[in-house]
Amino acid sequence: MEAILGLPPGRVVVSIANGRGPGERVKIYTEINDVLDHMFNACTTSQISEFIPEKRGFRIHGHSTTICLERAFWNVLDDMAKESKLPLPRLVERVHDGCLVANDKNIASCLRVICLKYLNVYSSGAPAARPELSRVA
Q1: Displacement of CA 2 from its chain's centroid (Å)
Q2: Domain ranges, ordered by start, for the chain
Q3: Which 8-state DSSP code applies to residue 30?
């Protein structure tokens, strides 16, 4: 797109209505040096809160444990639990049982990886691309 507009690579054009008249717009040019710059510039103040770690307590097979994850991961886990028709503690227990075979010490790490895999596989939003998830007792 930069080549079409005659801009150097990494420069993004944002066009905003200036309020002076119909069709009149102000163009703003901003530098985007890499993917991280773009992601951080795209974050709103409310989205920054997703970086804040949050501790939640669970009982897994009768043992109390506290898991600390960033809010962004808790949001994904909440969505996964709703879609799976499971309460969040049961979802965490299932991840514990299935994931700790490979990583026997770190449930938080397993949950983060499961969240990333979920987003990569199921984030398209197309119902046909999503297998039916049934409740497991």
Answers
A1: 28
A2: 2-42, 49-129
A3: E
What pairing do the DSSP bridges indicate for beta strands 25-31 and 63-70?
unpaired
Task: List the beta bridge partners of residue 58.
Answer: 65
Surface-to-core class of residue 80, CB atoms within 10 Å of its CB (0-12 exposed, 13-18 middle, 19+ buried): buried
CATH number of 49-129: 1.10.3990.20
The Cα 78–Cα 97 span in angstroms is 18
The whole-chain average pLDDT of the chain stands at 75
Question: What does residue 80 show for φ and ψ, rounded to 5 degrees?
Answer: -60, -45
- Report pLDDT digits (tens) over 88-128: 999 999 999 888 776 667 899 999 999 999 999 887 654 44
Question: Is the CA virtual torsion 11, 13, 14, 16 positive or negative?
Answer: positive
Q: Which two tokens stand for residue 123?
A: 């984030």
- Cβ proximity of 58 and 47 under 8 Å: no
Q: 100 Cβ partners below 8 Å, 6+ apart? A: 107, 110
